[in-house]
Amino acid sequence: MLNIAKIKNGIVIDHIKAGQGIRIFNWLGLGKAPYNVAFVVNASSKHMELKDIIKIDNTIAINYELLGLIDPDITINIIENEIITEKIKLQLPQRVEDIILCKNPRCVTSTETYVPHIFHLEDPALGTYRCEYCDEIRSAGDFR
C-alpha cells in the first residue's frame, strides 16, 4: 500500500482519469516546483476503477476552465491546516475564450488576429464546442 503524507496547506487534484494526470502535471509545471508535489498514477478507486491524483503542498492559481477541458470529472480539494475546506467539482465550461482555436480558414479569427477565439459548449456528452463566428465544431481536447 502506497502511503503519502498529509499536506498542511495546498491543493489535491483528485478523480483524474487514469493516464491524464501527466498532462495536468506538465501543464502546471509541477516538475520544477520548489515545493512538495506527489503524483500518483493508477490509484485504485471505488468509482472509477483507476485514477490519477496530484497533491500539491502549496496554494497555486489554477485555470479551472482549462482543467475542466482536460477532464471535467476532476475534483479539486483545497486544504488548509490539513483539513479539506473546499471541494470544487469541475465540469466542461459553457464558454471558453482563447483556449480552443478555430481551424476554419474562412473564420474571422483566421484573418483578424485581434478577434478572440470564442467557443460555446455544443454537446456535453461528446465534449464538443461551436465557434461563435463560423459554427465550426471542435473537441474539448483541441485546446492549445
What does this structure look like?
The chain is mainly beta. The chain has two domains: 10-89, Alpha-Beta Plaits, CATH 3.30.70.140; 95-142, Aspartate carbamoyltransferase regulatory subunit, C-terminal domain (SH3 type barrels, Roll). It is 12% helix and 38% strand. The protein contains three helices and nine strands. The protein has helices spanning 21-27, 64-70, 108-111; strands at residues 10-17, 37-45, 49-56, 75-80, 83-89, 95-97, 118-123, 128-131, 137-139. The protein has a five-stranded antiparallel sheet, with helices on one face. Strands 6-7-8-9 form a four-stranded antiparallel sheet, with no helix packed on it. The longest helix has 7 residues, at 21-27. It is elongated. Residues 95-138 form the Aspartate carbamoyltransferase regulatory subunit C-terminal domain. Residues 2-91 form the Aspartate carbamoyltransferase regulatory subunit N-terminal domain. One of its GO terms (cellular component) is aspartate carbamoyltransferase complex. Keywords: Metal-binding, Pyrimidine biosynthesis, Transferase, Zinc.
